[in-house]
Amino acid sequence: MLSEMIKEEFIQLNLEVADWEEAIRRSAEPLLYGGKITAEYIEKIIETSQTLGPYIVVTKHVALPHAPAQFGALDLAMGITTLKTPVKSGNKANDPVKYLFCMSAKDSETHLESMAELVNLLSDHYFYQILDTAQSPMDILEYIIEKE
Amino acid sequence: MHKALVACRAGVGSSLMLKIKTEQVIKENGFPIQVEHASLDAVPGFDGDLLITLADVAKELESQGLKQTIIGINNIVDKNEIQSKLAGFLNS
For residue A48, what is the nearest residue in chain B, using CA coordinates? Predict the structure, then answer.
């Protein structure tokens, strides 16, 4: 279940960042401190988004920073970061990015159900209202659990 | 029946979500397409006729002279975009 990938301390609300790179970096920090990814994993995401474009921007205002498992994904996890001021990623169809779901997965099978839940949430207008109005990380986590 | 590969760079995140959404669209519309899912590493060995990926990855694949039709999706939760692009492929 998606709620098992996301810990309360992986959720950060209304962060202020200067640009796209800082947004990715900060969105990954809770997973780094939580032992779910290595520092190399973050560098790989940034390097790839600089050389190959903003491929992690998946729908309007939403990025899913992640890299292949061999670059330092230690354990299955997901963080949620909302930005106070959205930033441009260079993905014309979906800019600016306001919500970042940094994720780490060691394979493509064990979290299939969780990703299906995330797809549903990203299709749910009310979920974005929760992201915008949440007073605490638990407000978001409770909504995710309620929807499972 | 067409065979499609949904691919992204890592094969664990965006492409998985795209596969889930694409399968929903295929089921709802009864499209004759079978979907597999992998990272871009699997593209050279793929023997089907359709590649589905995110728009900016599609641009890169288009420059590689692959035999498959390439569909690039901008918004992975937009069923209308996926549906119209798959329909375009089936009608071509």
Answer: B9
B42 CB near a chain A CB, below 8 Å?
Answer: no
pLDDT for the residue B84: 97
**Looking at the complex, does the CB of residue B36 fall below 8 Å from at least one CB of chain A?**
no
Task: Give the pLDDT confidence score for residue A19 in this predicted structure.
Answer: 97
Least confident stretch, A29-38, A87-96, B55-64? B55-64
Mean pLDDT, rounded, of chain A? 94
Task: Give pLDDT tens digits for A3-59.
Answer: 999 999 999 999 999 999 999 999 999 999 999 999 999 999 999 888 877 778 999
Written as six digits, the tokens of A7 are 């810990």
Is residue B19 helix, strand or coil? helix
- The CA distance from B25 to the nearest CA of chain A, in Å, is 13
Kindly provide the residue ranges of all beta strands, DSSP E only, lying in B1-92, ordered along the sequence. 2-8, 33-39, 50-54, 69-73
Q: Which DSSP string do the residues of A74-106 spell out, in sequence order?
A: -S-EE-EEEEEEEE--S-TTTPSEEEE--EE-S
Residue of B nearest to A77 (CA): B13
- Chains A, B: CB contacts within 8 A come to 79
Q: Which two tokens stand for residue A49?
A: 């988004």
Q: What's the complex ipTM?
A: 0.83
Could you tell me the two tokens for B72?
Answer: 């690039």
Distance CA(A37)–CA(A72), nearest Å, equals 5
Q: Which of A56, A66, A115 sits opposite B20 (nearest CB)?
A: A115
Once rounded to an integer, what is the mean pLDDT over residues A107-129?
Answer: 90
Nearest CA in chain A to B58: A55
